[in-house]
Amino acid sequence: MQVFYSSREAAEPADARYFSGTVRVQRTEASAAPHVPVFRVEFAPGARTHWHTHTGLQILLIVEGRGRVQMWGEPVREVHAGDTVSIAPGEKHWHGAARDARMVHLAVNIDATTTWMEPVEGD
């Protein structure tokens, strides 16, 4: 068993090349084989990722607040603390906070690399 004390570490600003708005991230390497990084991501109201895909499964666990997720070609969906989002390999998507609320999620990426794309326009 391993315990990761991310609550003892400060979050860092997210890379502005891949996020819009104020976003802070903490990263933990939960497993080397399979590779499973876990990201605790804090989104200020209206902040979000750019469009992106993953080569492996991504699971989002919404732990605080209210957020939004969208798959390419589908409507935006609202998510709340306690909700889980499963994103299949290759699905183009984005996720972030609602316009008027912050949101925190844990992103669990299972043997996945990320391909970042364009910022989300409108919505």
Could you provide a short overview of the structure?
The protein is mostly beta strands and 123 residues long.
Portion in beta strands: over 45%
Show unreliable segments.
none
| Alpha plus pi helix count | 0
Chain oligomer state: single chain
Give the secondary structure arrangement, pairings included.
Blueprint: E1 12-13, E2 19-20, E3 23-31, E4 36-43, E5 48-49, E6 52-54, E7 58-71, E8 77-80, E9 84-87, E10 93-97, E11 103-109, E12 114-116
Antiparallel strand pairs: 1-3, 2-5, 3-4, 4-11, 6-12, 7-8, 7-9, 7-10, 7-11
Structural account:
21% of the residues are buried. The radius of gyration is 14 Å and the shape is globular. The model has no long low-confidence stretch (mean pLDDT 95). It is mainly beta. The strands form 3 sheets. Strands 1, 3, 4, 7, 8, 9, 10 and 11 form an 8-stranded antiparallel sheet that branches. Strands 2-5 form a two-stranded antiparallel sheet. A two-stranded antiparallel ribbon has the order 6-12. The chain contains no helices and 12 strands.
Write out key terms for the chains shown:
123 residues; mainly beta; 12 strands
